[in-house]
Amino acid sequence: xxxxxxxxxxxxxxxxxxxxxxxxxxxxxxxxxxxxxxxxxxxxxxxxxxxxxxxxxxxxxxxxxxxxxxxxxxxxxxxxxxxxxxxxxxxxxxxxxxxxxxxxxxxxxxxxxxxxxxxxxxxxxxxxxxxxxxxxxxxxxxxxxxxxxxxxxxxxxxxxxxxxxxxxxxxxxxxxxxxxxxxxxxxxxxxxxxxxxxxxxxxxxxxxxxxxxxxxxxxxxxxxxxxxxxxxxxx
Length: 235
What we know:
mainly alpha
């Protein structure tokens, strides 16, 4: 039971912290739909990746195997599945009427995904894994979602000809950060890795995490400010 609680708690805390910043609360039913949609995103990811799993075993280079696993087996299918659920659930919703909404809904989808993943990893790996994932993996999924939701909202409210480009950024930015994040960790697990390469991977991972958090808070602040300005214009 303690492992299950350790799996669930960081997800709930992250969702609460982003939910409380929303000045005009979204319908709980829609938020729950996004959250449980994240469970469906896990199933979509497994369906897409299963046929390609054997390919990894044929890759002789540790570098390219880590790259394949990080991007082709994790970042691309996972973020694509989340994006599909997000688009399906909220793009045409009348409640998607503010910039911050895109970030909030994206986070609920992503952390629904992260909850399932967290439970599986923690029950298998124990409390040490729970602590590590609470510090890194759960916020990672959360901030990948911030990037997705930020550009998703820009696309939603864009009136010019750049809507598709913004939607592509909504998918591409989290894939980029997710892929680099996983690649650094996966390649670092290679046996007999050169010490300088390992140091470089630590630097890369640290830089990705710092930049991800920095951009995440910046994007949240930017959309909250946009919503504040829009409300003032309506008064």
